[in-house]
Amino acid sequence: MELKIPPPVVFLICAALIYFSPNFTEPMLILRILAVIIALAAVSIDLLGLLAFRQKKTTINPLAPRKTSHLVTHGIYRFTRNPMYLGFACLLTAWTLWIGNLLALILVWGFISYITRFQIVPEERILAEKFGAEFKAYQQQVPRWLWR
Questions:
Q1: φ, ψ for residue 123 (rounded to 5)?
Q2: Closest CA to 120 of 88, 92, 81
């Protein structure tokens, strides 16, 4: 399953599961306001990640990490090694809050777990092979998500 399902597809599957999961509460205004704030932050994080890749002229194809030509460590990548996946997780969190289904936050955790195991860890193995000590140093300085 490693590097087989594109992360945007995993994101859309999780978003659909959140939408169709049983909901026992009505959406509250405060949750919707929080959802909008988180969604705006998520889109910004995603766009900053894409911009950093474009500046280095390297691939953003998550299914072909071996085609990576540069190790991107500037911009948003100084704070998280995976801003695009972090943005997806934040968007799922915002979606969960928007529909008022706090129980569906379990699916956000599922997304993070799946992406970590089947996308990020394999990518990191490849980056370690390609960039050696430079990647290892970066890995020690910057968290995978926003936390260690």
A1: -60, -45
A2: 81
Q: Is 2 exposed, middle or buried (0-12, 13-18, 19+ CB in 10 A)?
A: exposed
The answer to whether 97 touches 33, Cβ cutoff 8 Å, is no
pTM of the model: 0.94
pLDDT in tens, 4-43: 899 999 999 999 999 999 887 888 999 999 999 999 999 9
Quote the number of domains for the chain.
1
DSSP state of 5: S
The string of pLDDT tens digits covering residues 73-103 is 999 999 999 999 999 999 999 999 999 998 8
User: Does 63 reside within a domain?
Assistant: yes
Q: Is position 53 within any domain?
A: yes
